[in-house]
Amino acid sequence: QVQLVESGGGLVQAGGSLRLSCAASGRTFSTWGVGWFRQTPGKEREFVAAINWGGGYTTYTDSVKGRFTISRDNDKNTVYLQMNNLKPEDTAVYYCARNPSGAAGWVPKDYDYWGQGTQVTVSS
Fold first, then answer.
1. 83: which residues sit within 8 A by CB, 6+ positions away?
2. Closest C-alpha to 124, from 8, 11, 37
3. Across all residues in the chain, what is the average pLDDT?
4. According to the model, what pLDDT value does residue 12 have?
5. N or C: which end of the chain has fewer CB within 10 A?
6. What letters, b where the CB count within 10 A reaches 16 and e where it falls short, cover 34-55?
7. Cα(119)–Cα(106) distance, rounded to whole angstroms?
8. If phi over 0 gives left and psi between -120 and 50 gives alpha, with beta otherwise, what is residue 110?
9. DSSP-based three-state secondary structure for 24
10. Which pairing describes strands 18-24 and 10-13: parallel, antiparallel, or unpaired?
11. For residue 97, what pLDDT is reported?
12. Over pLDDT 90: what percentage of the chain?
């Protein structure tokens, strides 16, 4: 019954910004950790950012630190990824996913439900 739906992707020039949203179903949303991952064709899925169940702990992969911010609004069952100073290397399909332990983990295998993804394309 868990469902995650990403939105907010699009085409943007290098240096621009986008805000991705992950809207989730489920009355236990506030107990989940939520992560953002991205994938380019032919590449392994890459961890981007994660937030724990209460929003008090966040973690990021090195390449996005200082540029991306993950946050959540448990009243809206939504997690956000604010992406600033985008680079062409950020081009990928971005997925949000649920971590049932509530933790902000970086390993894809810790996540059990995934959204369909939203395309982010950054032009140089």
1. 17, 18, 19, 20, 64, 67, 68, 90, 120
2. 11
3. 97
4. 98
5. N
6. bbbbbeeeeeebbbbbbbbbeb
7. 21
8. alpha
9. strand
10. unpaired
11. 98
12. 96
